[in-house]
């Protein structure tokens, strides 16, 4: 196995917890010793102990920690699902974290409000408000992406009440897509192997982004 990316202890087979945090600091500057210990308490990482009782970490531990952190950051996955992926890959390479796909099938795996809170950093009261405002219409893995986006926008002073207009706009776009898809026209999407609805969705997404990027400032 190769040396962990950014390792500060090249050539050493084991690292102390502070060295592990330092090894991953470039990619995960917010990583702390407390975060690593929390992941240990959840059973995602199990360090070995020296004869003196000190917990130390192997290169495999560092790779696993990197996988966990990327899964949270890029795929917005809760720890329970990350643990399932780690357990399923025992004896094999960890799966690649690629980030969510815009046109992937909806992820309907059920999640609790507590798991949504853990995966997004939102409080339960904010998640309840997201439900009241129609931003969340089902407690599943797809809602976690919504919660992550809401958390980011709240950093700019927007709360779920402000974001209800986005939900209403999306509802109108969905209605438009369904109306168009109800009368297939064999557009360009068929040339690229997309079904009619996916092709329409992709085109509306491109239009939506183009309008946002090229709209003149107010």
Uncertain stretches: 1-11, 99-103, 187-194
| General shape | elongated
Provide the helix percentage.
40-55%
Strand content: under 5%
Strand order of the largest sheet: 1-2
Tally of extended strands? 2
Which value, in Å, is the CA radius of gyration? 22 Å
The helix/strand series, from N terminus to C terminus, equals HHEEHHHHHHH
Q: How many domain regions?
A: 2
**Gap between N and C termini:** 54 Å
Counting DSSP H or I runs of 4 or more residues, the number of helices is 9
**Nearest-integer average pLDDT:** 79
Largest sheet: 2 strands, antiparallel
Structural class: mainly alpha
Overview features:
Multidrug-efflux Transporter Regulator, Chain: A, Domain 2, 2 domains, two-stranded antiparallel sheet, 2 strands, disordered N terminus, 9 helices, 218 residues
């Amino acid at each position: 196995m190769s040396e962990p990316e950014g390792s500060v202890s090249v050539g050493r087979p084991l690292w102390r917890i502070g060295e592990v945090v330092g090894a991953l600091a470039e990619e995960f500057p917010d990583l702390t010793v407390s975060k690593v210990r929390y992941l240990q308490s959840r059973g995602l990482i199990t360090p070995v102990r020296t004869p003196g009782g000190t917990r130390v970490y192997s290169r495999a531990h560092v790779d696993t920690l990197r996988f966990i952190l990327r899964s949270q950051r890029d795929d917005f996955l809760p720890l329970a699902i990350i643990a399932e992926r780690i357990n399923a890959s025992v004896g094999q390479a960890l799966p690649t974290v690629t980030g969510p796909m815009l046109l992937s099938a909806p992820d309907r795996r059920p999640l609790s409000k507590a798991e949504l809170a853990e995966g997004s950093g939102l409080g339960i009261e904010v998640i309840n408000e997201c439900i009241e405002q129609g931003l969340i219409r089902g407690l599943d893995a797809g809602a976690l992406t919504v919660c992550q986006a809401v958390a980011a926008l709240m950093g700019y002073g927007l709360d779920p009440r402000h974001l209800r207009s986005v939900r209403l706009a999306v509802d109108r776009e969905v209605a438009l897509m369904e109306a168009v898809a109800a009368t297939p026209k064999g557009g360009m999407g068929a040339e690229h192997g997309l079904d009619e609805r996916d092709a329409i969705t992709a085109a509306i997404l491109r239009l939506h982004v183009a309008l946002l990027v090229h709209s003149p400032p107010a």
